[in-house]
Design brief:
Blueprint (H helix, E strand, L loop, with lengths): L1 H11 L8 E4 L5 E6 L5 E5 L3 E6 L2 E6 L5 E7 L2 E6 L3 E4 L5 E5 L4 E6 L5 E6 L4 E5 L6 E2 L7 E6 L5 E5 L3 E5 L7 E5 L4 E7 L2 E6 L4 E5 L5 E4 L7 E7 L4 E6 L3 E6 L4 E7 L8 E4 L5 E5 L4 E6 L25 H9 L36 H4 L7 H10 L1 H4 L13 H14 L7
Antiparallel strand pairs: 1-28, 2-3, 3-4, 4-5, 6-7, 7-8, 8-9, 10-11, 11-12, 12-13, 14-15, 15-16, 16-17, 18-19, 19-20, 20-21, 22-23, 23-24, 24-25, 26-27, 27-28
Helix pairs in contact: 2-6, 4-6
Length: about 425
């Protein structure tokens, strides 16, 4: 009812009439959002595509061979990075700017638009000229790179999977370890003299850029932090987490201005502000990007629900098997012995250490893993998704938001992974 009343109020108020919207058309979750200074919106999706929106009408940019994780804009032209390890520049003559040896997780454009920085889970940061020319490699950050940001003074900050917040003066220079958080730093945003970061354990902190001295701590009992957006002119810092909230911090007073439940289920993976800072865009498990007027956030009920469509009748199988078919069966067999599927067999899963099925070429992160598969670890895997539970693995992003759905899947797997293949 609150949602209906709020929408009616927006339609009745010409100032806000165009500010609540939804952008529909993707075939998978929204992984990232960028907004140009002219107000054009770009969305990156798990469906391997990028949407470039004029109002609610999309132009589809197709070229990635896997999920598109991140999008930014260089002079209004989309730049994207994906699970296919490529960084792509679009515009009139689309081309590959460069390649990493792992998934591309983050992009940043220089203030003058002359180059793009990209970070990857392969543990590298690259600088790519927008015009033709070779890329430049930054000094080794020591582990997978989750996010990068360019500060007003031109220095580069990076958050890594081993919990470091690093500061680089230029490519090739030795980085300064500004913060050693201890848990993976997923998000980094810079402002005048400060850096805000969000981490796997829910840590949401602001530090002095030069020294790492603490300025503010907005850590709540919500984890992990998955998205951040900063609007400098209005002094707003938006923070999205794995439990579906968008927290907005006033950077002039360093106080929480709003705390909005944006999803019924699942995380907030993507955040971006409109050019004037009056509207916040968000994406998550839905195939839809949503935008709310910031001033009226408290008037809305959660919008993102994470509902997915089925390729077969959902009533033909119990819920646990249904969850397996939706989330697992494309990559995993339940039978003993070798499997021709993309992932290792799940036979004998419970009690097995991760990365130990003979003959399967695991990613390095799983070969040395201490994870023992059981009810708790399988639940955690699908609660926040493989990208965040085992950063650096080859497992595709899958989330099962409902506690009961995860429990049903686990009950199904306990039986299905112990059955012997019929004679």
């Amino acid at each position: 009812m609150r949602m209906a009343l709020a929408i009616f109020a927006l339609l009745a108020d010409p100032v806000h009439a165009q500010e609540f919207t939804s952008l529909k058309g993707h075939g998978g979750p929204i992984m990232d959002i960028a907004v140009s200074t002219a107000g054009q919106v770009a969305t990156a999706s798990f469906d391997n595509s990028v949407g470039l929106w004029t109002g609610r009408d999309p132009k589809w940019l197709e070229g990635h061979d896997a999920a598109v994780n991140v999008v930014t804009l260089a002079a209004g032209v989309p730049v994207t990075g994906g699970d296919d390890f490529t960084v792509r520049l679009w515009g009139d003559a689309p081309r590959v700017l460069g390649r990493h040896k792992g998934k591309v997780t983050t992009l940043a454009v220089s203030p003058d638009g002359s180059f793009v920085l990209s970070g990857s889970w392969d543990g590298t940061i690259m600088q790519w000229p927008v015009n033709d020319g070779p890329g430049r490699l930054f000094a080794n950050p020591g582990s997978g790179v989750n996010d990068i940001a360019i500060a007003p003074d031109g220095s580069v900050f990076a958050g890594t999977s081993d919990g470091a917040l690093l500061r680089f003066e230029a490519p090739g220079t030795t980085p300064q370890r500004v913060v050693n958080h201890g848990f993976g730093v997923n998000q980094v945003v810079t402002g005048p003299g400060w850096v805000a970061y969000g981490a796997v354990d829910g840590g949401t902190r602001v530090v002095v850029a030069d020294t790492g001295a603490p300025l503010a701590d907005f850590t709540l009992d919500r984890r992990p932090i998955l998205s951040m957006a900063h609007h400098a002119e209005t002094g707003q810092l938006a923070v999205g987490d794995g439990q579906g909230y968008i927290m907005i911090v006033d950077t002039d007073t360093w106080r929480i201005a709003r705390d909005f439940r944006a999803t019924r289920n699942g995380p907030v993976w993507a955040l971006a502000y409109s050019p004037d800072g009056a509207v916040i865009y968000a994406g998550g498990l839905d195939d839809v990007a949503y935008a709310w007027p910031v001033a009226l956030l408290d008037e809305f009920d959660p919008a993102i629900d994470g509902e997915r469509s089925f390729l077969r009748d959902a009533e033909t199988m119990p819920n646990g098997e249904r969850q397996f078919m939706r989330k697992c069966s494309i990559c995993h067999s339940l039978d003993a012995g070798p499997s021709r599927k993309a992932g290792p067999t799940l036979h004998g899963l419970f009690g097995r250490r991760a990365g130990t099925v003979d003959g399967y070429p695991y990613s390095p992160i799983l070969e040395g893993s201490a994870i023992i598969w059981g009810a708790e670890t399988v639940d955690a895997l699908f609660d926040i998704g493989p990208d965040h539970y085992i950063p650096g693995s080859k497992m595709p992003m899958q989330v099962i938001a409902g506690t009961d759905d995860r429990a049903d899947l686990i009950d199904f797997l306990k039986t299905a992974t112990t059955k012997e293949k019929p004679e």
